[in-house]
Amino acid sequence: MDGVRRAGRALWRVARHEWTLVVLASLPLAAALTWPTLRDPAGTLPQDTGDPTLQAWQVAWGGHALRTDPAHLWHSNTFFPEPYTYAYSDTLLGFAPFALIGEGPVAAVVRYNLLYVLVHALAFVGAYALSRQLGAGRAGAAVAGASFAYAPWKLAQAGHLHVLSIGGVALALAMLARGHGWSLRHGYRPDRVRPGWAGAGWAVAAWQVTLGFGIGLPFAYVLGLLGLAVAGAYGVTWWRRRSRPAVSRGLLLADLAGVTGFAGVSLLMAAPYLEVVARHPAGRRTAAQVAMFSPPARGFLTAPPESWLWGERHGAARAALGFPGEMTLLPGVVLIALAVAGLVFSAWRVWQRVALAAGVLVSLALAAGTSFGGDGDPGYLTLMRRLPGWDALRTPGRLVLWTTLLLGVLAAGALTVREPPPAGAGRGDWRRWARVALALPALLVLAEGVNRTPHVPVPAQPVALRGVAGPVLVLPLGGIRDYHVMLWSTDGFPSTVNGLASFTPDSQQRIRAAGTGFPDAGSVAYLRAAGVRTVVLLPGYATGTPWQGAAARPVEGLGIHRERVGDAVVYHLDRAS
């Protein structure tokens, strides 16, 4: 009986622990602030049916490959007959374990919507944990977490799960700081060193990289800079004291293993992308592409139309932007005001505030792309020319995540200042009113994150594509419909010519050109030679394309079999009529 009581008390302590409460609170908060995502998770997608259908396929393919043939992970079923097609865009590979449960397009959509909600919760928890580790109070950490998870600029990225998946960045930094016994308020404390937390931090950082290099590559460079700063601090200590700082053997081993693992994962992830660029030079990003997506200064004060609070009010400002989807980068009016206040009064030391402010300015300059510095040095293009891998990033505005995180830390410092109770007031009354007052900033930040994101119906899978035999070509070929074909291909993952990326492989261009007159002798012969065995024509989507009216074209003498399946026409190239 005593053992049961002890177990019950232990469970109660865990249940009421701060971190348990934060995690549990983050889930309904995420469900509410992404609503109505969970109202119909099998039938709708947030924002549009473009990138979300692609990313639903990406997660599903990762799980399928791990379950069936991990050796061919990077050679996906799309863009047949090209290899390394899984590396044509950020893969979200780190979410592949979620795809080990469920199969087919419906499961892929449900999975995407659940992840869409969960990544917001993780961003809140990660930034909250980082701020607490740095020394912020609960109210300040709540503001940092709320702003990092629900900043207005993130509403424009509702269709980009890989951009929203930033929680691992803050969480890894929090774990690494905890493992190294370091905080902003107290500095380095050897008695607080926890090698296990350091190792866990490196593991989370490696996982973050597997979600995509658009976020992961800058994160890797930030970790490198932090590592140099720590090494420099140790060097200064040694120079002044002529003695080495006390560092535990366990921490050194954890860092060695962590850095090795992080570097190994990064290199393994980078290898297929380098292969893709070598095979398809058109896939390399250019300065002109960066310039197209580079936001002007006013973009950082402009909210996307999905913002409930600022969307309509900022309509005129958005109209002046060249590419609003990547240029509406408002971190939050309340957040900016709190961060400015944090420069004046804060729990952080003056030099720390200056360093954080400098980080904000540097991140803003980089997020502005060519709008700051143009083609000269220093500037964003300097990194493209000199840092390995940086030329793969064409949307500099997404670096505003670092601006948001640093502003959150500044704001957290302002809300961590502890004032003495007023004369004549009871200590309990003061604390009660202080909690109420300090909760208000977090609520205001969350109010700026309320969304008006449209949730659109998922394109229904044609009956003809259920269990279709590959290699298959779905017509019409090209455009956003190829994203839908990729999603539909999660039903068995047949090899599919269709696919859409930032560049078009030569093989797909040739198939598109040769198949324009399908079905005719030339196109049938070319497709057979390319290995295509089935062609599915979707007449309802062919209006205005070269395949408009293709369903009525004769097939006699072509040596193929044609049949009507639902609203589609299926051509079997390996069977005669």
TrEMBL record:
Keyword Transport appears in the UniProt entry: no
The organism's place on the tree of life at top rank: Bacteria
Keywords linked to the UniProt accession: Membrane, Transmembrane, Transmembrane helix
Segments passing through the bilayer: 21-38, 110-129, 159-177, 197-215, 221-239, 251-274, 329-348, 355-374, 399-417
Signal recorded as keyword: no
Name of the protein this chain belongs to: 4-amino-4-deoxy-L-arabinose transferase
Organism this protein belongs to: Micromonospora purpureochromogenes
